[in-house]
Structures are given as C-alpha cells and as structure tokens.
Design brief:
The complex is a heterodimer of chains A (226) and B (795).
Chain A lengths: L1 H15 L3 E6 L7 E2 L8 E2 L8 E4 H9 L3 E4 L6 H13 L11 H7 L9 H30 L6 E3 L5 H29 L8 E3 L9 H14 L1
Parallel strand pairs in A: 6-7
Antiparallel strand pairs in A: 1-4, 1-5, 2-3
Chain B lengths: L1 E2 L4 H15 L2 E7 L2 H16 L4 E6 L2 H10 L1 H4 L2 E7 L7 H4 L1 H6 L3 E5 L2 E2 L3 H4 L5 E4 L22 H9 L14 H11 L27 H17 L6 H13 L7 H14 L2 H20 L1 H4 L3 H17 L3 E2 L3 H11 L6 H16 L5 H18 L4 H7 L1 E2 H5 L12 E2 L7 E7 L9 H7 L1 H7 L4 H14 L3 H5 L7 H14 L9 E9 L3 E4 H13 L3 H8 L9 H15 L39 H25 L4 E2 L4 E5 L8 H7 L9 H6 L7 H17 L11 E7 L4 E7 L13 H10 L5 E2 L7 E5 L3 H14 L1
Parallel strand pairs in B: 1-7, 2-3, 2-4, 4-5, 5-7, 15-16
Antiparallel strand pairs in B: 6-8, 9-10, 11-12, 12-13, 14-15, 16-17, 17-19, 18-19
Classes of the chains: A mainly alpha (226), B alpha/beta (795).
Keywords (chain A): DNA replication, Nucleus
Subcellular location (chain A): Nucleus
Protein name (chain A): DNA replication complex GINS protein PSF2
Chain lengths: 226, 795
Amino acid sequence: MASRKFNLCHEASFCAENTPVTVVPSFSYKSTLPLMSSQRQSSVGPFVAGMPMEVPLWIAKVLQQRKLAQIQIPDWLSPESLTATLTEERQENMLTDTLPFYYFEIARSLQWAMDSKSTMIVLQDLANVRTDKIRSHFHEMSKGDLEKNEGELPEITITGICSIELNTVGPFLQRAFSDYGYLTKSQKQAAGGDFEGEGNTQGSEGFKRPSSLGSRLLKLRKKALS
Amino acid sequence: MILGMNHWHFGYEQIVQDCRNEDGSVLMLCNADVDAMASARILSYLLRSDGIPYQLYPCTNYQALESYLKTNESVLEEVEAIVMLNFGASKNLTRLFESQLLTQDLKVYVMDCRKPVHLANIYAGENIVVFMDDTTNMEELPSDGDNLSGGESTSDEEGSSEEGEGDGESDEDDDSDMDDSQADEGEEEAGFDDVEGDAPPQPMPQQDPAYDGGNESDHDDEHDNDNDDDDATAAPVDDPEKSKRRSRDDAPEMDPASSPDSTSKRQKLTEDDATAVETDEDDSRRNSQESSNQHEEEFMDPRELHKQRLVKLRQYYSSGSFFGCPSAYVAYRLAAQLRFGDEKDLLWLACVGVTDAYLHARLDLTGFAALSTDLKESIFRLFPNDMYERVSNTVYAEDLLGTTPLEGDESRTRISLSDNGRIIAQNDFRFFLLRQSSLLESMVHSDYISTKFQVWTKKGMQRLQELLAKMGYPLDECKQPFHMMKPSLKRQLQHKLVENGPEYELGNWQFTSFFRITGYQSLLSASDTSYAVTALLECETPTSKAIEDDPLNQQAWDEEKMMVEAFNIAYDALNCNTTPNSANGSGTWNGVLAEGRDTSTLVNGGSLSGSTGLGAGLRMAMTLQKLVINTAVSLVDREAITRLRHFRYAYLNCTSAGENKTARSELVPSNSNKKSAKDEEHKHHVFAKPLALTRLAHFLMDMHRENGKWTGGKSRPLVLLAEKPRTGTYLVVGYEYPERAGTFMRNTFGNNFELTAKSMNGTFRFDSFDSNVVEVNGDDVQRFIEQLHYLMDSI
C-alpha cells in the first residue's frame, strides 16, 4: 500500500509539471519550440528577453536551473494569500476551491525558487487542515450519497478536492469502499442482483480517478470465496 | 594567448561555441589539490548548464598525462577543448600537445596559479589560452622571438637527455634536438633565419626592434653570437646551456612553411582578438617606441639589444617560481562574468579554493587578504545580513496562521528558519578544525598555537593551560566537543583571547575565514573543508588499505590508479549540495540523500565514521596533522635536520614517524605485526605526497621561527627528502624560508635542481608540476645533496 502511494506521488508530481507558469527569459529565441505534452499549448515561444511568457512548469524549472530565465511565483503561492486561504479553510466546512488542483506539487517543485521560506510552512498547515477535513467530515458528506445507491457506482462529490488530498486519503477510502461494497453486496445479493460496489470520489473539475484497483480487489475477493 | 581578467568569459564562450559547432566535448585535466578540484566543480557546473559533455581526469605528473593522452586517442577525437586546472602554465604546451594540436583543431585552456608562465604559451597563438590574472605586469614580459624557453630552463631539460649524464638517463621528455629547434622556430619570428640565410626575414609588427633593420645584421648577429659563445670562458654551469643554444642555432631546419604560418598567426592575432591585441599592442607600442628612440643606434647595436633580451629572458625564468591567483577564484570570476554570479555553491567553492591556496602556502598574506575582501563583497551581495534583511526575514507564527494575538498579549512566537547554505565571512581563530573537535585539541594541534607554545614540551603544555585558566575556561569544558561547550564560553572566546593574548605574545591569531551553515546553525569552515579534502586526497583509499592489509594479495601497486581513486573520493566529498536541486544537483526530486552528500546532514561535522565523505576527511585531517606534528618534533629531537652553508635538509624515511604508530596506521597501510624488511618496502609513505610534505615543511619553519633558531643569519632554505619505498626513490622538495610568516619568496630551487641533475650521473624525474620537486633514485640521493651544495656554493 505504501509503494502504491509512492507511485501516486510520482504520478501527481509529474502531471503537475504541465501547469503553465509565468517566466521571464533572459535570452531571445525567434522560432517556436513544438510541445507534445501539453493540450493547452502546442508550442512554446518565441522567447524575448525580459518579456514574461507562459511555459509549462517543467520547462520553467529547466530554464531557471540553467539561469536562462526567472520564474515568477504564482499569486496564490505567496505566504499572504496562503495565510488567507488557511483562515478561510479553518472557518468553512467545505473545502475551498480557489486552489489549483496540483497546488501542493507545484509548490514543492518551486520550493527552491521561492524567496520566502515561510511559504512551505503555511502550505503544510493548509494541506493538513484540508486532509483532516476530509477525514473527519467524510462520513457526513457521504452518508447522503451512499444511501441513494441508485446504480452500481456510488458517487461522492467533494468540491474543491485537490491532488494531494486525493492521494493521501484516496487509497484508504477506495479500500474502505470496496470492503463496504463487498459487505453490502452480499446483502444485495440476498435481495437479488449481482453487482460490484465501488467507491468513487469525484473532484470538482471533472477529474475522474478510475479506482480500477479497488474493483480488482473486489473481484479477487469474489474469486476467493466462490 | 593571454586573457586578461575582464575577458575571461570570452575563453569560456569560445569553448561553448566550439563544442556546439562541432558536437564535441571538453576534457578537464585537474591537478591533485583542493583548489583545482573546486575550480573543476565550478567549471563542470557551467558546462552542465550549457549542455556540454565533459570528462574530468586527475593528473599529478606530466608522464602520467602523456601516457593518458596516448592510450586514449579514440576518446580524444571528440574533444574540442582541453582545460588544465592548476598546472601546465610553466611548461611548453605546444610541445606537450603537439600531436593533438596538429591532428585536431582543439584548443588548450590553462587556469594555473603557478608562474612564471612559459612564454611559448603566451605567444603561441589562439590554440593555447592562458587565463592571466592581473598580478603579472604585461609590460615586463620579454617579447616574442626565439629562445622562448629561455636559455636555461625547459629547453635544457630536453638537452640534458643528450648531455650531462653518462650512464644514467633521464626520464624526462626525450625530445630530440631536431624537434626542439623545429618547434621553437615554428614560433620564431621569421627574422631569425638559419645561419645560412636562405629565406629573407619578413618584417612583422611585433618584431624585436633589433630586427627592424637590415637583414645582414641578423646573420652577422647570429655569427657573432656563436663566436661570442665560443670565446666565452664559461663556468661549467654555462657550458651546457650555451652548447645547447649553439646546437639549436646550428640545426637550422627552418621550416619554410612555418614562418608564413607564424606570420599569419600573428597577424590574425592583431586583427581578431581584442584581448591579445591589448597585450601585443602594448608590446608593439613599446617596441616602436624603443625603435624610434633607438633608430639611430639600431644599426649599431642590435647585438646589444639581443643580449639584453636574452638577459631578460633568463631573468624571467630564473628569478624563481611563484604563485598567482588560485584557479578556483579564476573559475568563480569567470562564472560571475557569465550569468552565474548569484549561484551560492559556486561562491562557496571559490572560498574553499582560496583558503586552500593560503593554507598550503601558495598564497601569501597580502594576496589572501585581497582575494578574501573580494569574496566578502560577493558574500554580502548574495547573503545580505543587515538589519533590514533580518527584520524582514523574521517570521511569526501568528502571521502565518492568520490569527490575531490575544488582547494585551504582546508576545508572539518567532519561528526560527533554517539558514542552511548561508555563507558567512568572519574573523576566525587559527585553530585546527575547531568546530569538529574540542577547543583544547584544536589549539594543541594547530600550527599556530603549537609552535608558539611548543606544546609538545611539558612546559609548553602548562603554559597553554595557564592561558586557558586565565581566560576563565575550565579544562573540562575545553575538552568537550566545541559545539557542546557552554554557549557563554563560546561567545566570549574571541574577547578573552584579545585580552589575554598579548601576555603570551599571541598576535595575529585571526584571519578572515569563510563559513557555511549546514543544517540549522552548525558551521563548516572553508579551512576545515580544505584540510579534510586534502587528507582524503593524500591518505590511503579503501582499496589501497585492502591491498596492504592482505599480505597475500600483492597486486601491482598502481600508483596512478590509487591516485585516481583517492581523487574521486575527495572530489565527491567536496560536493556541497545544500538543496537537492542546487548547483551540483545530484539529488533527485524525492531527495534521496547519501551520507555526506548534503551539507544539511553534515551537522557539526556529520558522521565521522565511514571511509568516504567529508566526515571521514575531517577525521583523517586530524590524524594527518598529528602525524605532521609528531614527525616534526621527532626530526628536531633526533637532530635530523642538517645545516649546510646554503640550506638545511632532512631525510624522511618510513621509520621516522615518531612514536605515534597508532596514528600512522590509519594513514599508512602497514602490517604492524610483522617487521620484516619486505613489509617496509611495501609501505606507502604519506609524506611522499607533495601537499603533506609542504605542511610538514611549513610547520618546521614556523617552529623554528618561534624558538629563534632559524632567524637572521641562521636562516636557510629547507630541503626535505621523503622516501618512497615502493619505487625506491626519494622525493626531494626545496622550500624557501621567509623570515616572516605569511610572506612569500620566489622559489629558485627549480633551477638549482636541474643544474645539479645535469652535473651528475643519476636518475631523475622532473615530472612534477611544481618546479621545486624532483624525484631522485635512492642510491643517488646522497650525492645529489652534496652536488646541490657545491652548486649553490658556486653561484
């Protein structure tokens, strides 16, 4: 289970690097460089020294390390705005949706480029608060959704969830749900019909995480018993 | 070709351009000292940032370098630039890289602190680039022309292979006379024809004024010179030199192709490079001035001018070797002229390199002060520590939480942030490895205190303890590891030393030192780093220990391989990662850190176990220092230092290490159980390494300066002879003795050793990069000393 989380971590960091950030290059390059990886941008450039422009995060990091450009830290990543977000989090019941999906991974990538050392401190606090919220309020959030049980896949909608929380609590929840589904399945089987229960959480931006592992687990279980 | 200080970045840009155009790589050849390693790190960072592949290879002598070049020809085909760090400037590089320069279009770049720079390298055209600091006055350099090797120096090395020795042959460069003259004349002005006078000389802008005049005078001059030589009643010393010159002049072999080449080269110089034009213009301006002044006398006295020039050349080479700017500083300045001036790791490497040069007597006090002032400015720029910064950097927890403090409650929680990676320039004490050991230990083993108090005597130790008591430091506290001492004591140390120092004649016990914060608040000083990495470089490696400990496993002791391994370990230890994504970026995103690879794990010296890494280096440095002190003391006790009229000398055999055998056993692999002669052979003497030997020599000098035995009329240079039992030779190194600590005198032993070697039969190796080092066969060493003495008598 731990290695799975580790892989999720890698995956998230990698995907986060596609986020566009503003960069001020110190060189000029007239033609554009084609990009395969981004859906948003098909190419990067032309570079004009001193003019800010948007590039994917991974390009920005490479340029910064080679001293060819200066990354401009996004607005949401300054200590003040993070502190504001933190206070908001503590007061509200629901998660804020002002943060980008990969906020933690982006911040971790840009850690070395930040001027202020206290950003990471606030960020850690923010991530902790949000994750705690999910863990503690999950029961209430999900009670209503689970009871409905219209189809085979109970959906639990949590607005404002971000990648770091998904990866922190996600695997546990998936496992929990698959167990739940298994336990209720036997009930349902008794009541008629065969189905697989899966847990699925959905982010607010329409990002769907297929919990294929959860379903695989369930299948294994079924096999073992039958 | 020379690059002045402001133009160093042109050299680097040239490398980048060449490699990008031709898809080539860079070969970095690095001398085995910390300064060179630091500059190698800086340069490799630059190259990595620009995406240029490079290779790094350590060298300790020219022989090894040549064999490396020969065996790796396939590798060398891709190489577009060779960078030599901290060696090579005083050798004729056109000859050394002759085959490479002919077959490929590569360039050689030299960053060397050793001077004097061989004139052939300066006037060689664009293929050899010397990064020159501002200490040499370009006006004083002899102008271009023949005899660029000087009458007496490198050309005579080759010459001595034919002359001088009867039976024994020298292991030096065995160039034949023909090659000699060809190579030289390839660079000569065309004015210097062969004696028969085939091709008329072509007037060139940088020509020596003597040859602006008619052609006839040239030939007459040559003939006259030869006649003069013949007539001269020379001392035996002069004969080899003059006969050498005669033989060169007599072997005309003037390459007609080479003179137009050299002309065009020189003309290209004046047109292209802004840098070379500066210096050449200076020369030509001076020449034209001279020539205008002497226009009337030209026809009358070209011989006189020629003689003057020869005298100048001779003076240039024989005034002794000295040191210029350390190469790490050159590399950092170069980086700062490019876009890397804000990179903190590079600044730290420069600090380590400069401190290392100072500690190993390659930099005198004034030079070190100048360079450290410059580095301090950079430090203040990158790490501003003024009030404003400190205020703006304080972080309070309440601010971060967004909570307002309670009414009436003024206290706020201050969060202390790690200052990891910060560089500080402070006055520090001259104590050895203070922050990695206890106060008492570091005082006892420092060069400064131990020589002032003569701590190895009982009385000296008592005096030292008296001083500590007067300062109010209990002995127990002084024996605690320094970072565990009471904070109040640590803070007062400086103040107390100022108060009580003068009583014990402790002046000048501070020097500007550089520190880097590792972890939260622990400090790592540049001098400690330098000592540690030097120790890793010079002491045994795990492999060599394995070989030695197993008496059955007597593999061939490949000195070269051992050196490369030690170099690699030391180079890794110099790694100054403060963050995983920093300059030497070896960490991956998940920050997997190995021991000693991240300075934040190096808290208070870090783990001192293990055989690699900075922690191990610190441990070995302490052992090495103890060994140095013990050896020095035992030499004095046994009265093993003999004084002659012109110098003092002492033998360092493997058995002369003194009582502290346990200390030695860590550094020197030895089967301490068996005492057979065979084992003695297989010992590897740590003092046969040049850096350790330099430390010993300077310790001896400090010691005797303090106890007044070597002062005034009794001062002499010091020659140390260290045994290398493996090869049965002795490493003979000569050191000048400056009256005041920290000053520097030009080292003239290079010349003296050469002359001595020429005048006797025996086997010698003048292979080392330092001119004052020679390796002599065990049987010949006694006679060598005698001969050296006679020689210095006759000078």
